[in-house]
Design goal:
This protein has helices at about 10-20, 80, 105-110, 115-135, 150-160, 175-180, 205-210; strands at about 25, 30-35, 45, 50-55, 65-70, 75, 90-95, 95-100, 140, 165, 190-195, 195-200. The chain is of the alpha+beta class. The chain has two domains: about 10-135, Sandwich (Jelly Rolls); about 140-210, Glutaredoxin (3-Layer(aba) Sandwich). A four-stranded antiparallel sheet has the order 1-8-3-6. A hairpin with a 6-residue loop joins strand 4 and strand 5.
């Protein structure tokens, strides 16, 4: 499930350096360091705890374990640098201590510490690949394959390397039931479901919509 590139273990000097620019925190079982949908969060280095990275991936809402971080590993993904909302949640599985580094400080570290910055960036890229290829997503595109709007949205998500799942109600009756449960009209499709919110297609002429 994990590989060395996506989930490396930092050596003691790297951990000590990050602790010098961050803050040591105690965490308890069940604490969330961040949740899917958060628009900002800190970079965390695990000192003695265990932290699960989880994704609410399937249609029943069950959680999917992506990885577990232990001493010497660090949390984070590309959205820390791109400004996108986080796709996964980080929940403490075993109590201990972590180091919290603000995102702005992390950007400075990446820009000024070549070796450590390369390790972090390589891991962030590899983790995005894990989400794209090995995990179902908390972002879902609902739309017919026969509509050009669906393909346009999917092309945008793919080009932007945003993990997502494409669901076609015309190909799966269970998806059609989901559309009904969410009170989505056929004319609303395609829609994107992200962090529990349904993002409908904007009006073709926003100015007309506002003025009317």
């Amino acid at each position: 499930m994990a590989d060395d590139a996506a989930f490396p273990i930092l050596d003691p000097p790297a951990v000590a350096f990050l602790e010098s620019v961050g803050e040591r925190r105690s965490v308890g079982v069940g604490d969330y360091l961040y949740r899917a949908g958060d628009d900002a969060y800190d970079f965390f280095v695990v000192l003695s705890a265990a932290v699960d990275i989880i994704l609410g991936g399937d249609r029943n809402g069950d959680e999917q374990l992506i990885a577990q971080h232990r001493a010497g590993s660090f949390l984070g993904e590309l959205n820390m640098l791109t400004g996108q909302r986080v796709y996964v949640s980080a929940r403490v599985a075993e109590a201990g201590e972590v180091v919290s580094v603000p995102a702005a400080v992390l950007r400075t570290v990446i820009a000024t510490n070549a070796n450590l910055g390369d390790t972090i960036l390589t891991a962030f890229m590899a983790r995005r690949d894990v989400l794209l290829t090995g995990a179902s997503s908390s972002i879902r595109l609902l739309g017919s394959r026969y509509r050009s709007e669906t393909h346009a949205v999917r092309e945008f998500l793919t080009r932007s390397r945003i993990p997502h799942e494409w669901l076609d109600p015309e190909q799966d009756e269970s998806i059609e039931r989901l559309v009904t449960q969410l009170d989505i009209a056929c004319g609303d499709l395609p829609v994107v479901i992200a962090s529990g919110a349904v993002l409908r297609t904007p009006p073709r002429d926003p100015c007309r919509s506002i003025s009317g």
